[in-house]
Amino acid sequence: MKKVNITELVLRDGHQCMIATRLRTADMLPICSKLDAIGFWSLEAWGGATFDACVRFLKEDPWERLSKLRKALPNSRIQMLLRGQNLLGYRHYSDDVVQAFVQKSADNGVDVFRIFDAMNDMRNLKTSIEAVKKAKKIAEGTISYTTSPKHDVAHFVALAKELEEMGCDTLAIKDMASLLTPQTTAELVKALNSAISIPIHLHSHATSGLASINLMRGVENGATMIDTCNSAFSEGASHPTTESIIAALQGTEYDTGLDIAAVQEVSEYFREVRKKYWQFESAYTGVDTRVLVNQVPGGMISNLSNQLKEQGSLDKMNAVLAEIPRVREDLGYPPLVTPTSQIVGTQAVLNVLTDKRYFTITNEVKNYFLGQYGKPISAVNEEVKKLAIGDAVAIECRPADLLKPEMKKLANDVERLARSEEDVLTYAMFPDIGETFLQERNANSLVPEQLLSKEEVHASGPRYAPNEFNVTLHGETFHIKLTGTGHEGEELRPIYVTVDGIAEEVMVETLSEIEVAGTGQSTGANVKKKTSSSSGRPRPHHKGCVTTAMPGTIVAIKVAIGDKVKAGDSVLVIEAMKMENEIEASTTGTVVSINVEKGDNVTPDESLLEIQPD
């Protein structure tokens, strides 16, 4: 018998793909005993974007989640997704941080480490693999599958041989963007099976609609391990359905031996749980064959659509999906997987929102061109590289070779907040939000983002309101489109609109209220046009006003009042869509006012800093 082993993904990749990684630990634990009893080869339950989501949105300690899952799953291997030298953050870390992170992950319950590098730069995997082997855990070396003029079967076979030589126990083919076809799957798995002796583990997202067939062809050609997700969170941007694959293999030489009824019981539980997270559902998580061109991975698409929605720019999604492959080509065809998917995706969003390609370039794109993520497989666009880093020369060595040990400094930086080495590592992954999280935890003031109830929101049944209309006043017609609103309940509530395409903000002051269909809608208001935003910052009113291309959070202020700056100088740093963007001086002159502080949330219609032009 050539039994096939299954890794179940519902506790990590499934909900990352379908509800933007929002599943809470409290909704995982009640079903763990039943998951634990099924007999999966492993349960992927940690890593990927879950660490970020726990700290940023759910206000949960990710280490505590892992520890609780370990206790709730005593008979199962817990698997995590680790980004090599990036760990779970968006930069490379020094070797001592990587070693500490792997050891603490093992101590808290991880048995299988699926280790990949977004650039497929094998130099960036070595330290992680060695650390996993030292911890006596399973190291699963990973090749990130992609397509380009430079990627072929021979290239991937060469990578696999390197991973086996490094001591990996298994090899994963990570088809994060659903680019494999049945024929290429068969060809690739067969070639790998002939070239290496370690087990092959096949991971293929279902976005293109081909993944179930890919798994079957992979199994027929030598893959002995496959990834699936139970039907509550499967298919589309996620993965083939666990129950369906078990059924497809039953009675064959590849029979998994797993009980479909037991999996169905788990699926029924998660199907009900998923209803709580309706606000994070996305229209972009179904089958979409355009992925064969844009290559946006399943784990990114729901987060990308959610971020565009938060910015009031969801109507730009198709333009962003068309821009992503162009940016990827400019960067030398990196596989699109974290962090390169965020690097390419965020730059594509900026290119679309600013209506000018590379008018704003993120710090991460600049670092990419400097070689700080590794070496691309193909030549980059030299014109774009020049725009990003000028005449700077990219490094040739392994990026982490230039990093000094960091753990001692990190521990000192967060000494007043950290209670454990795990806390230090949380801070290391995300210094700003990590520090805030630890502060709030210590003050017992952690508040997770709100889960809105559909029943409460729609208690009065379907309701509709215009969001785009023409208004005729004194014989003149204006085209008005609602683009966003401030929080309900504020005495003065900002309403964001465009009037004939020009962005405006009006302030609505409630004067009286009557209850309408149980919703408490206001019936009277004063409307005031303001020259400042709801934050109190002035609107841009001359060429020296510095603005941002997209909403975000100020993470650094690089100038002071009185400083002389030149047009193009970096004056602020903003975090948007998890990437840092430098905001440049709009003109040459003297800084006369700074209207923001570190940590402030800002929008494009605000003057963040003012320069008196020379």
Helix and strand topology:
Blueprint: E1 5-8, H1 10-18, H2 25-28, H3 32-38, E2 42-47, H4 50-58, H5 62-72, E3 78-82, H6 95-108, E4 112-115, H7 126-134, E5 138-144, H8 153-165, E6 170-175, H9 182-195, E7 200-204, H10 211-220, E8 225-228, H11 242-249, H12 260-274, H13 291-294, H14 298-310, H15 317-330, H16 340-353, H17 363-369, H18 382-389, H19 407-413, H20 421-429, H21 431-442, H22 454-457, E9 468-473, E10 476-485, E11 492-499, E12 502-513, E13 522-529, E14 545-546, E15 552-557, E16 564-565, E17 570-576, E18 579-584, E19 589-594, E20 601-602, E21 609-613
Helix pairs in contact: 1-14, 6-7, 6-20, 8-9, 9-10, 11-12, 15-16, 20-21
Determine Rg (CA atoms, Å): 25 Å
How many DSSP-defined strands?
21
* Beta-strand proportion: 15-25%
Mean pLDDT across the residues is 88
Shape: globular
Number of helices: 22
Low-confidence stretches: 514-523
Give the CA-CA distance, first to last residue: 80 Å
Given the helix and strand composition, which structural class is it? Answer: alpha/beta
Determine the fraction of residues in helical runs and give it as a percent range: 25-40%
Strand order across the largest sheet: 1-2-3-4-5-6-7-8
Largest sheet report: 8 strands, parallel, barrel
